[in-house]
Design brief:
The chain is an alpha/beta fold. Helix content is about 25%, strand content about 25%.
Amino acid sequence: MIVKVCGMREPDNIRDVEMLGIDWIGFIFYPKSPRFVRDQAIAKANFVKRVGVFVNASHEQIMETATSFGLDYLQLHGNESPDDCYALQKRGYAVIKAISIYSAEDLEQTKEYEGRVDYFLFDTKCNSYGGSGQQFDWDILTTYTGNTPFLLSGGINPGSAAAIRKFRHPLFAGIDLNSGFESEPGLKDTEKLKDFIETIKTTAI
């Protein structure tokens, strides 16, 4: 199971979180986010796989940022089209497309992105870009029959371990953790993360 911790911003906190055995760290490059990354100093550290989160950014902006911060994955949270995703794939980056979920009908849009993204990130539908801190009904995903693996996002918190252990889908690849483990925006509670990760890693099948 991939464990991605997103919304990281502080170099010391990032290093502490990296030591917990996570797989991916997410940096948000959306200026309206309270977790927006401004400090390029984090680009000099040797972290785990890096994911850059963008919202309707130009390809030029994405490429410049990806180079500056040494990104491995590009996560697109806006209205990016399948062609946009594919163009970034062709530049050598793995692409994660966020899909907002409220009902099974929302999964229909995944069909357009098949073969043009590497992962989906299924998040809770809300009125703004980014996370709502709320969890959608994961049972909806039983109707997902695509070929692209996905990560679960949206409202995952320390109390979600049991639900994650029970969740089953052949294309379930991992989880995305953010506000449910913060002491303040952009600053993660490493003890909460440590306990949670140990629980799901040791009991996952």
